[in-house]
């Protein structure tokens, strides 16, 4: 309803303006000065309305403003026809109402200044004082806006044709400052015009008119002759006095932003203490972070665009002033939210990184200031504040692209202490990703310890509690990051690398049972790489107390892997024990190697019960044991006997057969003559054949015919015989192979031929045709293959 009334009143006012403007134009066309003034005054009287909203009033004002341009041209032409400009200036003052009178005075005053019959200073002073007569906030604001508009190109600044005496530019400055002051007062008073229930509406309307006030500051910034001295001593103090004294949130926020945006960067830098000194005096509700962030952004851009300006930043101690000012603002605004205070320090940090990137002490000081502020709030529960902290901590990472540099900041981990677990973990992920992305070289145990302290949200459970609700895929990805990080740690100094491994172990073992199966393997393999580096050196190049000896590292790994058996990961523990056994074998540490095999056997016996897992584990044991060269006869026989015993006790007969014939390799090593026992090889193969026979019998009993699967066992055995025949085992003869081949021949007549069988036969035929192999293969008859 109110909006409809607004439209009606505006339409009526515009219609009246058009009518009076028509008669005014007709009077102008007939050079009738008296009627022109009469109808122009009537037209201007429409601006006396109090019914319109600011937005609608502005539309009406624009209509009138366009018509006043015509009137100004007419006044100028009248002076050219001999009419005294002074008489015209007096004549318009006879208008009946003050508002039309002042609009006419401003219009004729513009012509008066251009005529140079009187100084611009006198006219401007006269007009700005007379405008005080209109104290209605809306009407007065637009009147003064009109005065500023028509006088903008008529100010007696240095270099203009209206310059006048030496102090004329100061008079122009005084005029703009006085007009700005009065306009701001009127603008602020608008908030009190009307019932309190419509306050929000009025604030919105006031916000739409803010540029009318701000244009004065733009004019000030463009005045010739306003140098740094005048700005520091006159302009800035007068503006800030008005900003602080108005005690209005909207005005203070807008005008502070205007000051920052319209005046030159070097002015801000040289008057930083004055500008910042006003910040704590602003209303608590003012969005101070927007003001200060705008200032710091401008100064940062100034430093980036001008290398010559950087010494000035140091000279004026810009960092210290900004840091002190932010501290004062936070102290003065006791109800300032944590997110807002962190945002302030975030902008200060970005400014510091941009301008003082080589001053880590400054960066650390900002972090310390933030810690001091956060100490009053405890851990952050506010999501917005937590996100700001993440941005705050990420800024140095993005700037330096080197975590080692971040580790030098003593207050960095102190800031992270105020994050909740989820946010701490998110920040830890960002830190680890930075290491991996930038290929950062972390080469000392102290740096590793500090890094893992920063990343503890990713490595440890929060307060010792396991989070079972986390998405399993996300958890795997997070721990993969930790694993990749462990592999990145490297030092050329073996002793230092050993300390790194000990340090990593300390942190990883505190990670909880869910993490250990994912984080222990990379630690083990990193340690094994170090052991292989040490293998070629002296037995103990660092002395008896050194930590970087293969034996001591292997003892550490034994204790580490043992933890996995306590967290239900026996399969993984067995694999790692066997890896460690290989390393111990390479270092010729028989006792240590035997100990690792013993632990692997115990795990197999006590923890691994699934039949498939047993088969896999046994193959790993046999494969690893076959490569061992460090054992004496007794120890090797003990371990071999155990392995063959395990093979015979597997649940499924086919698995038994395969495991037993795999054990044959334990008695034959090509590169070691004392590990070639042909008889025991054949015993294993015959034992495997007996098991295959049992499988075949069961297949015949259950199906009444042979199965392809049972015949495959015979073919696999045949391949083993062929392998040892070619390796020169004297106990494997052509007769033995021939008998097995005949058995396969008889069984294959009952089942469809397999590609595996055909491939084996083709291989035998091929080998019979090769030089040096014909004697070994001559007793193997191929007629049954036809």
TrEMBL record:
Membrane topology: Peripheral membrane protein
InterPro entries: Vps35
Intracellular or extracellular location(s): Cytoplasm; Endosome membrane; Golgi apparatus, trans-Golgi network membrane; Prevacuolar compartment membrane
Pfam families in the record: Vps35
GO annotation terms (biological process): intracellular protein transport; retrograde transport, endosome to Golgi
Family indicated by similarity: Belongs to the VPS35 family.
Record's function text: Plays a role in vesicular protein sorting.
The protein's name: Vacuolar protein sorting-associated protein 35
Source organism of the structure: Arabidopsis thaliana x Arabidopsis arenosa
């Amino acid at each position: 309803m109110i909006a409809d009334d607004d439209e009606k009143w505006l339409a009526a006012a515009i219609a009246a303006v058009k009518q009076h403007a028509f008669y005014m134009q007709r009077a102008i066309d007939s050079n009738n000065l008296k009627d022109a003034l009469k109808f122009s005054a009537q037209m201007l009287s429409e601006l006396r309305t109090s019914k319109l909203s600011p937005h609608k009033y502005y539309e009406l004002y624009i209509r009138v403003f366009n018509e006043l341009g015509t009137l100004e041209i007419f006044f100028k032409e009248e002076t050219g026809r001999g009419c005294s400009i002074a008489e015209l200036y007096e004549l318009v003052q006879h208008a009946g109402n003050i508002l039309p009178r002042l609009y006419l005075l401003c219009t004729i005053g513009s012509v008066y200044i251009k005529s140079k019959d009187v100084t611009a200073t006198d006219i401007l002073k006269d007009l700005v004082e007379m405008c005080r007569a209109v104290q209605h906030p809306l009407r007065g604001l637009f009147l003064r806006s009109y005065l500023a508009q028509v006088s903008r190109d008529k100010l007696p600044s240095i270099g203009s044709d209206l310059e006048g005496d030496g102090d004329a530019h100061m008079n122009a400055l005084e005029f703009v400052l006085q007009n700005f002051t009065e306009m701001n007062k009127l603008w602020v008073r608008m908030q009190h015009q009307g019932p309190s229930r419509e306050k929000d509406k009025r604030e919105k309307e006031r916000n739409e008119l803010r540029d009318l006030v701000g244009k004065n500051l733009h004019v000030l910034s463009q005045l010739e002759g306003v140098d740094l001295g005048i700005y520091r001593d006159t302009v800035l103090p007068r503006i800030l006095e008005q900003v602080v004294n108005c005690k209005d949130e909207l005005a203070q926020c807008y005008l502070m932003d205007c000051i920052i945006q319209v005046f030159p960067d070097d002015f801000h830098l040289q008057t930083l203490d004055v500008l910042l000194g006003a910040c704590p005096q602003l209303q608590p509700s003012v969005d101070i972070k927007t003001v200060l962030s705008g200032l710091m952004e401008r100064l940062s851009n100034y430093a980036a665009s001008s290398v010559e300006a950087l010494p000035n930043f140091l000279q004026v101690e810009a960092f210290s002033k900004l840091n002190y000012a932010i501290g004062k603002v936070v102290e003065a605004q006791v109800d300032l939210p944590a997110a807002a205070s962190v945002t302030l320090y975030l902008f200060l940090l970005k400014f510091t990184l941009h301008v003082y990137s080589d001053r880590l002490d400054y960066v650390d000081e900002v972090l310390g200031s933030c810690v001091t502020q956060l100490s009053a709030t405890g851990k952050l529960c506010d999501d917005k504040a937590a996100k700001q902290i993440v941005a705050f901590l990420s800024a140095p990472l993005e700037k330096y692209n080197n975590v080692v540099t971040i580790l030098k900041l003593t207050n960095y981990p102190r800031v992270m202490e105020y994050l909740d677990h989820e946010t701490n973990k998110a920040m830890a992920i960002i830190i680890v990703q930075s290491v991996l992305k930038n290929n950062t070289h972390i080469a000392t145990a102290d740096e590793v310890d500090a890094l893992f302290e920063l990343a503890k949200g990713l490595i440890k459970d929060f307060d010792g509690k396991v989070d079972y609700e986390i998405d399993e895929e996300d958890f795997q990805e997070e721990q993969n990051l930790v694993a990749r990080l462990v592999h990145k740690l490297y030092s050329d100094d073996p002793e230092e690398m050993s300390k790194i491994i000990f340090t990593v172990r300390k942190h990883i073992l505190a990670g909880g049972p869910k993490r250990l199966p994912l984080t222990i393997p990379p630690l083990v393999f990193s340690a094994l790489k170090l052991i292989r580096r040490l293998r070629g050196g002296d037995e103990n190049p660092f002395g008896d107390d050194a930590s970087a000896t293969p034996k001591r590292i292997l003892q550490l790994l034994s204790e580490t892997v043992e933890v996995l058996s306590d967290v239900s990961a026996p399969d993984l523990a067995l694999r790692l024990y066997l890896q460690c056994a290989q390393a111990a074998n390479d270092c010729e540490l028989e006792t240590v190697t035997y100990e690792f095999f013993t632990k692997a056997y115990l795990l197999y016996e006590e923890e691994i019960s699934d039949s498939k897992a047993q088969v896999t584990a046994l193959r790993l044991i046999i494969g690893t044991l076959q490569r061992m060269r460090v054992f004496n006869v007794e120890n090797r026989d003990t371990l071999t006997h155990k392995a063959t015993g395990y093979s015979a006790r597997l649940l499924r007969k086919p698995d038994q057969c395969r495991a037993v014939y795999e054990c044959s390799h334990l008695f034959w090593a090509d590169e070691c003559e004392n590990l070639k026992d042909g008889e025991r090889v054949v015993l294993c193969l015959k034992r495997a054949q007996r098991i295959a026979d049992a499988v075949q019998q069961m297949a015949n009993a259950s199906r009444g015919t042979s199965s392809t699967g049972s015949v495959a066992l015979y073919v696999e055995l045949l391949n083993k015989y062929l392998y040892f025949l070619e390796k020169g085992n004297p106990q494997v003869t052509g007769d033995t192979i021939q008998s097995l081949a005949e058995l396969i021949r008889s069984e294959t007549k009952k089942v469809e031929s397999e590609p595996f069988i055909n491939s084996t036969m083709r291989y035998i035929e091929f080998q019979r045709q090769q030089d040096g192999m014909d004697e070994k293969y001559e007793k193997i008859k191929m007629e049954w293959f036809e």
